[in-house]
Amino acid sequence: MPCLNRRNFLKLSAGAALSGSLLSLKESHAKVTPLDFGVEKKVPVLCRMCAQFCPMIAVVRDSRVIRIESNKNTPHSGICARGRAATAALYNPNRIKQPLIRVGKRGEGKFKPISWDDALKIISDKLINLKNNGEEHLVAFLPRFNSAPGMDKEFFTIYGTPNIVGYGDTCFGNSLIVSYGSIMGGNEDKGVPGGGTGALSPDYENAKYGILIGRNPGGGLVTFPWGIMYGKGRRNGLKVTVIDPRKPSEAGESLTEWLPISPGTDLALLLAIANTILTSGKFNKEYLKKHTNAPMLIDSEGKPVHFENIDDKHIDFLVYDEDDKQFKLSKDASNPSLTGEFEYNGVKVTTALTALINSSKQFTPEWAEKVTSVPANKIKNVAENLINNAPQVFIERGYRSTRYDNSMEEKRVILIINTLLGSIGTKGGMIIQRGVKTGSFIKAPKPEQKPISHYYRKFSEYSLINTKDYRRFFIKSLLEEKPYKCKVAVFWGQNIIGGSTGSEEIIQALEKLETIVAISPYFNETVLYADIILPDAMFLERDEAIRTKFKAPYPTIAVHKKAVEPLFGAKEGYWIVNELAKRVLDSETYNTYFSHYNEKGINAILDKQLSKVEGLSEDELQTFSPDSLFEKGVWTGNIKYGVKAKTKSKKIEIYSTFFLEKHFELKAANEKLASILDPGFKYQPPYWKTEKETLGKDEFIPVTGFNPLSSFTGAQTKDNPILNFLGGMVDWDAIYINKSKGEKIGLKDGDIVEVFNIQKPHLVTKTKIKLVEYVHPDALFSYYGVGAGYYNNLTNFLTNAPKYGFNPNHIGNFTFAVLDGGQLAQDFIVKIRRAK
Amino acid sequence: MSKNIICYDSMSCIRCYACMTNCAIENSTRQFRDKGYKYEASVNEPKESKFYLTPLTYEYGKYPEAQKITKFHHCNHCENAPCKQICPAGAIEQRKSGAVVIHENVCVGCRSCIDACPYNVPKYSKETNKTSKCILCHDRIENGLKQACVEGCPTGALFSGSIQEVEQEIVKRIAIYKDTYNEEFVAYGLDKINNYVGKLGWVTIIPKKEMNLYKLPENPRSNAIALRNFAKASAPFLIGGALAATAGHFIYWLAKRKEVVAEKEHKEE
Known about the structure:
The complex is a heterodimer. By secondary structure, chain A is α/β, with parallel strands linked by helices. Chain A has 4 domains: 1-35, no CATH class; 100-171 and 440-557 and 570-615, Rossmann fold; 194-434 and 646-653, Dimethylsulfoxide Reductase, domain 2 (3-Layer(aba) Sandwich); 687-834, Beta Barrel (Barwin-like endoglucanases), CATH 2.40.40. In chain A, helix 8 packs parallel to helix 13. Chain B has 2 domains: 5-222, Alpha-Beta Plaits (2-Layer Sandwich), CATH 3.30.70.20; 235-269. Helices cover 39% and strands 17% of the residues of chain B. Chain B has helices at 18-35, 39-43, 82-86, 112-116, 138-141, 148-152, 163-181, 223-233, 237-268, and strands spanning 5-9, 54-60, 67-73, 92-94, 100-102, 123-125, 130-132, 158-161, 185-188, 202-207. In chain B, the strands form 4 sheets. Chain B has a 4-stranded mixed beta sheet with strand order 8-1-10-9. Chain B has a two-stranded antiparallel sheet with strand order 2-3. The interface between A and B is large, with 86 and 80 residues.
């Protein structure tokens, strides 16, 4: 922004005024007052209107945040509508204004104000009590947009509970992570390798063609940097095909191919793409030889015939070298055979790729047409587009990963196809993320007890669940009272009732708790079930630790400063944790971990973090300095193309040896589960297809997508007056079904209808319906988290938010996807009827 | 300052509505800065008059060939500004930047501009008896800032600058789109459209074959104005009628003005 002092501004403005027509210009529209442009304070912040922390600038004047700007100091600067409307969330009078204690029944929404002192005393007395009985592990802490990063989880760990329960099992922490780990390797979660949503970024800017599946770039969050990269890509001539039960405007409305697909059958279409590529032989041979285990020789059981340790963590496998017709380790082979059958020590062996080709043969586009309703010739067309533009192509990995029982396999096949096309690590394909780490403020000692998730991991059907993100297993544990029955839950930003599937059972489980604490700036379904509510500061009202976790493909370090003091009676997260720590911990423990914070405040955390910055290259270190970081608010490094796999073979394991190992582990116990872990191709239907092969005329699958004006189930967006005004204009709270299917059951556009899960007919939701041409006949589309849903007494607290509307979580089944334990968020059948 | 025009490129737009949101936020900021409103209160009053840029959605075709179009509804800042020409109060100014601005304090609420606008843009508020519409953020652009919507756009689908700069970018983009999609594209409003509106201060890039779907008229004009022009140009005996109409407007304005003032005073009590 150019520096403009007030005098210059006056001059400019006067000049402009004189130049206008005499009659009309007695006064400039922008009347110059002492409040002119150029005198504002600009504070670097990280957006928490959703969970992505996009770097932005809060513009402050007269102690008010008056607007949000993007932070221009990144290669992809930009903020979406949610972030732009942050001021309307900050000044929303529906915020929780003081600590509250429940006076009615749980969920009834009757509270009375109490003082901070009293509220903190009730909570800390409870915690001390449990500690005195050796029951620290019966406290669960469930954080989200955590308000005291670097100190909150750490406090509860020091206190002694192993149950720091992440929300990722209902988001990224299941099929997406496991499928990535099985092929690319990655950091291990108790033996299960994985990589999160940001582990691969489509290189939109340099790609020629891509497939959007399971995610839309406008609604689907991650504006920094994916939304921005996508827009640039479109300007550079990126063509896309959208595979989705609903045509998302966000992907592009003109000249954008849309293949409507029956919900939950994406896997079948992807298998047919793999089939087309593999049977035509048009895969990237050089890439597969160099970067993958495609040439690995396997026996008739599918096991590698021979491998050797190359160090204590890595192995190498046997291949057949075409140049000298010898069997050797892949590192010694100049031209490993990709396909073929051989005889090794008298045993018949084939390459892994041959096994993949053979297992893909049955999944022809004609077969997929029957499952997906997408015409075979269109599927072939997509495959040809991919082949013709490879390796500058990508298939998106999707978002909010497990939605159907077959999601894990779907995500894995996506990675296999990307690999066949040579796109992973290639410019214009999928970029492998480079991360960066800072020092941690507190290193908390491990509690004695094991978390709930470790107990469930022992069951075959849950053998790949996430041990850190397990909030629905926490609920399961409450219902089953296994391995122990928790007594206290502290929800800090997590809305488990509105934001995870099976609310009815979730509420039953919460009833079993002795004490529920909710810390939040806004009311949500879960807050209404709390016994004690603490008003959290909104993100613009607090200083925070430095952040390094972003979806960006390049290393990113960013700071978040307080823009304004907390409003009403809200308090900053660090203050809350520090006060709890003072009250709960003995003085020696308190002094060991928290005295630095008590003395120096946020600087104690920042200093510790900056004392150790890891992951930057030599060049990048030259450009990084704490001073400039604080001045600019954000620092970014470089994209590096190239393949780096963290598997045991250091190759992209297109034929997953991790799956293979698990396959044989499970084979004796459970043949069906084991078959899912076969590294070859197989089709697994979504759960709803196992209930009913074809849907009735009034039956649908409840698919969701993010609206660009809304994020998750949070009041920061859905109760936001500015976003709600625009949302109303685009019917963000309606459900959308296919027009001719709707007309056949006598519905009209705009009708009010009732929706219910055929397995839970007593939970009936009222909502407006739109009959449109751009939704698949099997699908009932709604924007995720916008509608009031079944548990709608929340609208008494969120007066701006939609009064009606659908939330599939409220009426969904409390079931788990096999192996990864994700939620079957939209894998159930709903019926609709006109409202009485 | 020289002319400053906006271009909306529908091909790189992700329909995230950041532009529309930022526009409404900027208008809250203006109320705070210029009119002594409390910002906190202003941002909590999402009135139509604060949204100069809004989405209109249309649907075409039959499943599975369906197409949804989200039209960006906004003032086009016409070169010939028919709204300005018709305004009896002289409340509408065309600034050097090309911004066509309704001055609220001069506006008499007669709604002639609504009649004159071929794009159905100005919005009348009963509450204030004023008509409002996009002001091209002339306060921002005259101080070296981008328009709020342009600043708000994360994907570069909205961009602005001098006619020359914008035209250069348009030519570049259309060449790429033509190459990618093998289709003709238009930059609606970059060249003179007709005598009624002239060129536009807000240009739209879309595939040529979708102009109708996007409801961009090839020959925009207003019937109300055509009638009035006819009256002006033809027989003098019509003048009496025209005068009566103008007087009527004035009397209407006076009456309405009284109401508004009375209401204001009432509120202040």
